Amino acid sequence: MLALAAHPTSGHPAPSPFVDGLCKGLKTFDEMLSGQSARKLERGQHLFHQGDDDRNIYKIESGLVRLYRILNDGRRQIISLRFAGDVLGFEAGSERHYSAEAITPVRVRSLDENSTYRRLRDEPALAPQLVSLLSQELENAREQIAVLNRRSAIEKLAAFILELHRRQGECGTVEIPLSRTDIADFLGLTIETVSRNLTKLRTRRIIDLPRIHSLVIVDFERLEALAEGEGEDW
To answer: What per-residue confidence (pLDDT) applies to 92?
Structure first.
């Protein structure tokens, strides 16, 4: 356990040099990013394409990005969705194994990977935040894998809606800036299956669809039960 020494005058614990250095490191990494020029993308524009030699680390300040691969047979496979606050671009090699495309207007800042690693070498206090960022990316990937591992189409769709709700700060209305094709490609379903099951959820008063790109969760308990493979006979 990390020990904190008492401050000689106030009686309150004084941060250890390690904690003080850690805080400075966290701030410095944000400063590194904020010092870079912001890049704006319109819907449909790419940060990079599959196969590009790209050595940047990106942080999304606003908007939604889809990461996808083109398979050998020409089909598109959406492998991940990245939201405001997410970092992407950490890969073992320089060649991108996927494409990153803006679904909505997007604002990003980027750092050259080599410059980042040199800064990390010179300022070890940056390491905890980079580890934290990578851990969060891994957690988000696990959550998305959990969505895809659901057995039935209705379970996948229910889990997908709940995951969007979680990533958007659990507000009342869930914005879905994706097309039915995007949702189908991400969940491994057909467009017809996605549309049919959204209609079922609305008919049974589990969700409402006030607009084409948004929904309201009417009954969280039933939606969560569906995502876990429990509850109603569909």
So the answer is: 72
DSSP labels, 145-205 = HHHHT-SSHHHHHHHHHHHHHHHTTS-SEEE--S-HHHHHHHHT--HHHHHHHHHHHHHTT
Buried/exposed code over 203-226 (b: 16+ C-beta within 10 A; e: otherwise): eeebbeeeeeeebebeeeebbebb
Q: Identity (one letter) of the amino acid at 89?
A: G
The domain spans of the chain are 34-146, 150-227
Q: According to CATH, what is the number of the domain 34-146? A: 2.60.120.10
pLDDT score for 112: 85
Please give the structure tokens belonging to residue 29: 């990494």
Name residues of the chain where pLDDT drops below 70. Answer: 1-30, 170, 231-234
Q: How far apart are CA 40 and CA 106, in angstroms?
A: 6
Supply the DSSP string of 103-132, one letter for each residue. Answer: SS-EEEEEEEHHHHHHHHHH-GGGHHHHHH
How many residues would you count in the chain? 234
**What proportions of the chain, in percent to the nearest 5, are helix, strand and coil?**
40, 25, 35
- CATH topology (fold) of 150-227: Arc Repressor Mutant, subunit A (1.10.10)
Q: Of 85, 74, 137, 78, which Cα lies nearest the Cα of 103?
A: 78
CA 199 – CA 64 distance, rounded (Å): 25
Per DSSP, the three-state class of 71 is: coil
d(CA 11, CA 4): 11
The reply to whether 150-227 shares the fold of 34-146 is no
